[in-house]
Amino acid sequence: MSATRVLVLNSGSSSVKYQLLEMTDHSRLASGLVERIGEEGGVADHTAALRQVAAELEDRGLGLDSPELAAVGHRVVHGGTSFTEPTLVTDAVLAEIERLVPLAPLHNPANITGIKVARDLRPDLPQVAVFDTAFHATIPEAAARYAIDTATADRYGIRRYGFHGTSHAYVSRAAAALLGRAPAEVNVIVLHLGNGASASAVRGGVCVDTSMGMTPLEGLVMGTRSGDIDPAVVFHLARVAGMDVDAIDTLLNKGSGLLGLSGDNDMREIGRRMAEGDERARLAFDVYVHRLRRYVGAFTAVLGRVDAVVFTAGVGENSAAVRAAALSGLEGLGIEVDPVRNAVRGSAARLISAESSRVSVAVVPTDEELEIARDTYALARG
Ligand code: AMP
């Protein structure tokens, strides 16, 4: 029996998501979620959560001891400048991921625990770390550098890393396939609009700019994150409002974005409230869409020639209203959405641009787990 299955683990700050994939046909054999880690009613910690995942798989006859399991792929949020591609986990690799914890204090520790527990359960199995930042490692210095003192920036690792990399990689490739062209031939703007949201500019399959920065806080308006903001707002809140750094961090990461503007972080709820004439919901929608349009314009200039604008993730795949509003009035850039195509719902990759549109507009469902599984399987097979 050959080993053709990959377990993908996505250990977040308070949850662990998993999928078991059969790589010969990309079918999903099992998937699940352990939530509320460390919270009331949930499991105690990440170690307990991972053990629960192992037990759930065992119950379904798909335990970690199965000889068909080829490898475990771990989503790791921050790879800094150390990791620019998927990496087979060794003690040295694990130590380096630990060294990067200050850059992602909420995420990397959970990822590390996931790797350690999986290694304990199956020491003989290849464990592969797939980094959220890796796809953006090709961004040129002009776009990756912040204009601050270079010595300070280098000393503290302050630069644009970007995130959602597995999604941007998967979706930009799938978009090229939808256009019937090779990734190397097309320039794509990817708009990953989930609870977290980011845009990327991909030239010929290579990422050249992205909206998220040193952390996932920068860029687009998100469910609970502000995205771009004048950094002096932070000083002002400290000096004038008397808030400490942690309170400001919480405000900008967890109490801002759609939630801060309207009281709801879910675009479905914003849509419902707008239909009832709710002004705060309308304002949140307008701010969200304005920011998106701004990035489409900016990345059009960065790329010079755009072949496709592609929407993905929860909002991007489902909200025709956001797609239409974000790209309305962009005929001058050669971007025209067809209202009928845009209104069609579905789970397949599809074009929503008008026949007359110079730039293709597409909806492409993302699949970060499959991308991680492919990277993992490729490395595990050597
Ligand atoms: P994700 O992070 O990709 O799972 O996206 C989650 C977000 O997608 C939710 O917070 C919602 O705001 C949004 N979403 C999911 N379904 C819909 C829908 N049918 N219409 C609009 N937004 C949606």
UniProtKB/TrEMBL annotation:
It catalyses: acetate + ATP = acetyl phosphate + ADP. Keywords: ATP-binding, Cytoplasm, Kinase, Magnesium, Metal-binding, Nucleotide-binding, Transferase. Its EC number is 2.7.2.1. Coiled coil: none annotated. Mg(2+) binds at residues 10, 368. Its main location: cytoplasm. Catalyzes the formation of acetyl phosphate from acetate and ATP. Can also catalyze the reverse reaction. This is Acetate kinase. It comes from Streptomyces polygonati.
